[in-house]
Amino acid sequence: MKNITFKKTHLATSLALLMGTSWIGVGHAEEATTDTQPEVEVIEVSGVRGSLIKSMDLKRETFGVMDAISAEEMGKFPDTNLAESLQRITGVSVSRNNGEGSQITVRGFGPSFNLITLNGRQMPGTGNSRSYNLENLSSEGVSTLEVYKTARAEMPTGGLGATVNIVTLKPLQKPGQHATVSAKGIYDTSNEQGSDITPELAAVYSNTFADDRFGISVSVSHQARDFQRQEANIQGWQANVALPDLDESLAIDPRAIDSEGNRIGNHFFPKDMNYSINDVQRERTNAQVTFQFEPIDGLVTTLDFTGSRAITGQETTGWGIWNEFGANINAYELDENGTAVFADIGGNDGSFTASKNTTEVEARSIGFNLDWEINSIWHVALDYHDSNNKTDNGADDGLGSAGQVILGSDQLVSKIYDYRTGEVPSALINWRNGTTVLSPGEIDSNFSQFIHSPGESDIQQLQLDARWYNEIIDIPLISVKFGASRTEQTMGGYTAWSGLRGGPGFNPSYPEIFPDGMFTLNNTKDLLDQFAGGGAALNPNYYYSFDFDEAVARQLAFLTESIMGPDYYSIDPYFDGIDSESYVEENTTAVYIQTEWEFDVADYTVQVNAGLRYEETDVTSTVRQRVEKQVNWESASEWIMQYEAGGKDNFLAQDGKHDVLLPMIDVKVDVTDDVVARASWGKTISRAPLGDLAGGRSLTGSPKPGSRIGGQGNTNLLPFESTNLDFTVEYYYGEGSYAAIGYFKKDVDNFIQTSITQTTIDGLYDIFNGPRYQQAISDIEGRGEQATSSAIFDQMLANGHANADGKIEPNSNDPLIVWNISQPTNTDTKSVDGIEMAVQHLFGESGFGVGVNATFVDGDVEFDVDSLVQQAPLTGLSDSANFQTFYEKDGLSVKLTYAWRDEYLIGVGQSQGSADAPPQFAKSYGQWDMSVNYDVNEQLTVFFEGVNINNETEQGFGRYEEQFLFARQYGPRYAIGARYTFN
Q1: Is 159 exposed, middle or buried (0-12, 13-18, 19+ CB in 10 A)?
Q2: How many CA atoms lie within 13 A of 556 on its CB side?
Q3: Global pTM?
Q4: Cα(862)–Cα(108) distance, integer angstroms
C-alpha cells in the first residue's frame, strides 16, 4: 500500500517566478520584507551564462513543458532577431524572409498554428493573416521569450503548436535607474545598389521614482539594411499535359509501358522559368513605453505602448520564359518519375522585367493593466489592450502600388528548358534573328500591371483574472485561478488590379517606343554563383536591364487612349475599381478555471495543475462579389477576364459559429532533488486561416489555359482541435546545466483539406478548343506548319475572328470554361508524435559552455508525392537541431551557433501548378552565426556579429527534387558596434 501524505504549501519559489513573468504577471508583485531580515547581497549573473541560467530556472519551475530565452543583459538579446533567438529552443524552427528569421514552426506545426502574445495579450497577425512576422519587432525592449508547448486553461487560444509570450521590460520589477545605448554598422556582403554600411541604433532607459512607487521604461531602435536577393524560380508544374506524337529520338521517356502500349505513371512539365535580381532596402523602427504606478502596496497599474514600423523597398530585374504545351512541344526528355528534365517548346514569348514594390508594415498596441494583490488570499488582474497590424504594398508615394513592367518579344523559334546538370535549370531562347540573343531593337511591350493590396488585422481584448490562495481548507489545494475574457478580432483587406496594360502580349506591336540606349546588356557571371550551374554557366548567360520609371513614362506617353482604345496604358490599380475585398470578424467569449495542488506520494513531491477553458466564437465573413462577364483572348499568351460594368459588385455576408471545451492537466514530480518528471494532457486549438473562412467565390483575372482557377471560402469551418500528450524527464545536475528528453503526441481533429472541383459557370464560354480554335488548327496543319498557341492566335485573327480592338471574344457556340474551384472543408483526424532532446552544460568556472538540442517528428500527415489526389498534409513538419558553444570570461564573450532544419513541406498548391494542387518543399537548411563581445570596462562593450557566415542558400522543389521551384542566394552579413551602459 502506498503512503500518501498531503502537504499544504504556497509553492513560494515557483509561484513568485511565474507571477513575475507573464500570465498574471503583466503587472508587478513585491515580496514582503521585515526589519528583522538580514540584508543579502544579490549578485546578478549576466551575459550568455546568465541568460542560460535564467532560462533554465524558468523551465524547471513552471508547470507543463515550457522553454525560455532570456536577455543577456538590459537591451541585449542573444540574437539579432527574435525569430532567430526562438530557433535555439528545442522543437522550434524558423522560416526565413529576405534572409532573416520571420515566422516559427513548433513541433512540426507551422506559423498559422502558433500564437504570439505580448505580455499575455493575443497579438494580431501581420496584415490580413493570423501569422505574426517576428522580424518586424526588435529585441531591445524584450526581457524574456517564453514558449509554452502544452495546454494552459488561462492562456488565450490559438497556439496548437505552441504559444510564444514576449515579455517586455517593466520598471518596477527592476527599481532604480538603468540605461544602455548601442550602435552598430551592418555590412551585407550581397549589397550592390544600396549603402555598403547601414546603421542600427538602440537605446533603453528605465527608472523609478517616489520611493519606487512610480516607474517608466522606454526603448527605441532603428535599423537599416541594404542587400540583394538573387533568385531562380518556376511558378508551377503542370501534370499530364497533352503530348504530341513525336519521333522516338525527340521523346525520351524511361517510364514503363503497360500491355496496351501506354506509359505507366504521370508526367509533368514546367509552366515557366524565371530569374531575378532583387535590390532591397529595408528599415525597421520600434518603440516601447511603459508607465507603472503603485499607489498602495500590492496594487500596480501599468499603461504601455508598443509600436513598430517596417518598410521594405524592392527594385527587381527579371527575365524568363512562359510555356504552353500540346502542339507547342517539339522535343522532351523525362526522368523515371515522369518529370521533364529537358523540353524544346515553341510559341509564347520571352521577357525582361522591371518591378518596384514598397511595402510598409505598421503595428501598434496600447494596453492598460491593473494588478492587485489584495491580501495573502486574493490576487486579481484586469487587462485591456487594443492592437493593430497593417500592411500596405502601396507605400511608394509616387506609384501607390506594386508595379511590374514586362518587355520582350514573341519572335522566337523555340525555348529550351534543361535541368539535366547543375542545381539551377537553364532556359535558352532561339530567336528568329538566328541567334540566342535578342537585340535591343526587337524588344517590345508585353504588358504592365499595378496592384494595391493593403491588409489589416485588429484585436480588442478584455481579460479579467483572479487567483485565490487556499489558507482555509485543509486539503492539498494550493490555489484556484479563474477568469473570463472577450476578444474581438477583425482581419481583412482588398486588392485593386490595373489589369494588363500596354498591349497586352505584343498585340499590337510597338518596339519603336523603346530606344536601344534604354537597355543595358549584362552577363550572369555573379548571379547565383553559389549553386552548381550558376554564374557564368547559366544559360542564357545574359540579360537586359532597364529603368522602370523610364519604361513607364514612355508607355504613358505613347500608348494613349487615342491609339489603344480601352487598353490604353495606365498605372492606376483602381483602373476598374476594387477587384476583390474580404473581411472576417471573430468575436470570442471565454471562461476558465485552473487549480494548483501539491502533495506527497511516498517520498515524492507531486504538483498538479488542472483546468478547463470554454470558448464560444461567432464568425462573420463579408466578401465583395464581382460579376464576371466573359474571358477574352487578347494575345497569344494573355487571356483576360471581363467584368460587368456599372457598379454591379455586391457584398455577400455569411455567418458561422463554433464552441470548444478545452480541458488540461499537468503533473510534475520531483523524483530527486535534481530530477523532474512531467506528464501533461490537454486540448489546444488553432483557428482556420483567414482566406479559408472568407466566403464567396472568386475567379482568376488572368485565366490562361492550364490556369483556370478560382476559390471559394467556408465560413463554418471548425478550428483545428488537438489532443496533446507529453512526457518529459529533466535532470538538473549543476548551475546552468541540465539534460532533458521528452515525448509528445498530437491528435488533430478537423484537419482542413482543400478540395478542387471542376465546374462550369453559365455564360463563361471558352475560346480554347472551340470551333474557331479547331478550324485554326486545321488551317495551320493543312499548310504543314506547327500549330503552336501563337500560330493559332494569329490564324484566328487572319480568319476574321477579332473584334475592332484586335481581341478575340467568346461565342455562344464555344464550350463552357472548365474551372478548377478550390474550397476548404474539415476532414479526418491526423496524428503527429516526436521526441525532443536537449543538453546544456557549463564547464565549471572555465568560461566554456555548450548547448545541443534536437527534435525528431513523424506522423500520418505527410504529402504523398506519387498521388494526384488532393491532400491535406501538415505544412512545416520537419526534424530540427541546434548547437551552441561559447566562451565567456574576463570580459570576453565568444559565441558560435548553428541551426539546422530538415526538408519540409512549405505548402500545397503552386501559383501556376495544375489542378491536383501540387506541393512546395524546402530543402534542408543549416546556418552558422557568431558573435564576439569584449568589455572594455564596466560601461563600454564592443562587439562583432556574423550572420549566415557559411553563406547558406535556400532551395525548393515540387513533387520530386527534379521539379525545381526556387533557388535563392543572399550572402553573409556582418556587424561591428559598441554598447554603453549607464550605471
Answers
A1: buried
A2: 10
A3: 0.85
A4: 11
